[in-house]
Amino acid sequence: MTMKQKLYLLLGVCLVGYIGIFAAGWMGDRAKTRLVRLEELASQTHMEVLQARRQEKNYVMRGDEKSQIQLKKHLAASRRHITELMTIFPERATEGNDLLRRMQTYLEAFETLDPDTRKETERLIMAGRALEPQVVAFRESAEKEYRELGSRVNLALGCTEAGLALLTVLVTLYIIRDLTRSMRSLQGYSSAIAGGTLNAEPPAGLQGEFGTLGRDVTHMVRQIVERIEAATRSEQEAR
To answer: Is it the case that residue 155 has pLDDT exceeding 80?
Structure first.
């Protein structure tokens, strides 16, 4: 392998590494963006349920129509969020359907409520108490999944960067070692010639540009030797 090819190898390693880092970051960002939406929908659902429970208390205390309308409005919004969530994240369908069933039970308890009937009031409160912890758990699960994904993405990027750094160092050390070894061999060869050992042989194992340089030096020395010998013969014949 020539020195030029080795340098191209180093360049290729760097390019592949940087492309790998970019690809890992891009895929990580896409996955995180998707989970951000999951977290948003879960948080919005939680907020709507909290607002519904607030209107539930107002209705139980006052029995006014405004609280009734607001409660249904918040429940409808929370159902829309869950439905959208299940569309984007089919793997969450089981949890989503369970929440929708609990919301339906809560709504039915509200619609059959007579504020003057204590039994029905307790049924509504119990349905709300059963719904709210499930929504909280769902939101916390979404937040946990997002945090775990962030950790995995950071780990993947860290490993990719560390691998690129290690591979770059190894290839660079290989090139430096090969370069210095070839230069030392050529230096010893040229020193032998400079010292008068014109029949010195070029070092074996030289490759690429260094091998070409060694052969050129050998060819040059042989030509010089031949000319010296020819000049010596001419001088002897002249005598």
So the answer is: yes
